[in-house]
Amino acid sequence: MALPIYLGLVHYPIYNKNDEVITTAITNFDIHDIARTSRTYDVKKYFIIHPHESQTKLAQEIMDYWQIGFGGQYNPDRLEAFSVLDIKSDIKSAVEYITECEGTPPIIITTDARKFPNTISYQQMREQIENSSKPYLILFGTGWGIENSVMAEFDYILEPIYGPGDYNHLPVRAAVAIILDRLLGEKWWE
Fold first, then answer.
1. Alpha carbons 28 and 5: distance in angstroms, whole number
2. Residues in the chain with pLDDT < 50?
3. Of the residues 61, 93, 109, 129, which has the fewest C-beta atoms closer than 10 A?
């Protein structure tokens, strides 16, 4: 049985490179690639979290093509990956959905390239997930990260992903894959 893990890709409130709060656009690659990664790691639901109807309509058209249109017939693997997708207008709606499904609110984890007072290591978070039956919502920000006052509301913030150099600005699709593998992947080191 899959762990009660949920994932959300947050498009608002997000910082841009000038530290202004904006709403980012939904991208086709994020829909496809994160759905495939989510399905690979048995995520129960991958929420695209966006407040604007014009953007969510676009995402829904893409989802419909692969879920009920020709795309699903042509590529059943993509149809299966898209089975975990859902669209929510805000984080609160995703939390309410999980609470209704699981009977308890999720523990909310997010990610950032910066450290915060409630930053937790991957090892600590993995152990907590493995030893708990509680649902978890792992949130990923787009742009330059989720706005600080919203970040302060989350239970945990995962430590940054560091490469060997000084550049630190991964695409969100790569960060999702790395983080899900660290938290849920096989224990290759044992």
1. 23
2. 1
3. 61
Cβ atoms of 25 and 4 within 8 Å: the answer is no
Report the alpha-carbon distance of residue 41 to residue 163 in Å, rounded: 23
Beta bridge partners of 46: 7, 85
Residue found by looking up tokens 């929510």 in the block: 88
4-57 per-position pLDDT tens digit: 999 999 999 999 999 999 999 999 999 999 999 999 999 999 999 999 999 999
Integer-rounded Cα radius of gyration of the chain: 16
- Distance from the first to the final alpha carbon of the chain: 22
Task: Assign domain 5-50+84-184 one CATH number from 3.40.50.2300, 3.90.249.10, 3.40.50.300, 3.40.1280.10.
Answer: 3.40.1280.10
**Where do we find the tokens 């490469």?**
163
Name the phi and psi angles at 118, rounded to 5: -100, 30
How is the chain split into domains, by residue range?
5-50+84-184
What torsion do the CA atoms of 30, 32, 33, 39 make, to the nearest 10 degrees?
A: 120
